[in-house]
Amino acid sequence: MDSPWRWCWLTLGWVLIVLAPVVGVLPGPGGIFVFVGGVALLLRNSQWAKRHYVRLKRRWPKLGHVSDRIMRRPSHRRRLERAAATRD
Which H, E and C letters describe the chain, residue by residue? Predict the structure, then answer.
C-alpha cells in the first residue's frame, strides 16, 4: 500500500513543475531550480516518471548526462568513475 507521504511528495513535485513557468517570469534563474526540484521529487517517488526518464536518456544521451549532473544523481558519479577506469 502506498504511503500518504509518497502522494504528498508526488503532488508537490507536480505543483513545482506547474509553477516553474510562473516563477521563470521573475528576474533570475528561479524557474529552473523550481522545475528541477519538481522533477527530482517525481523521480524519487514515481515509477512512471523513472521509466520516462530512462527513455529520454536513451534517446538523447547528452541531455541525460546534463540532467544527471544537475540533479547530482549517483548514476552520474558511477558513470564518471567507470569512464575514468577505462581510460587508465
Answer: CCCHHHHHHHHHHHHHHHHHHHHHCCCCCHHHHHHHHHHHHHHHHCHHHHHHHHHHHHHCHHHHHHHHHHHCCHHHHHHHHHHHHHHC
88 pLDDT above the threshold of 90? no
> Phi and psi for 34 in degrees, rounded to 5?
-65, -45
Residue-wise pLDDT for 19-37, tens only, equals 999 988 888 888 888 998 8
Find the largest Cα–Cα distance for the chain. Answer: 48
Answer whether residue 14 shows pLDDT above 90: yes
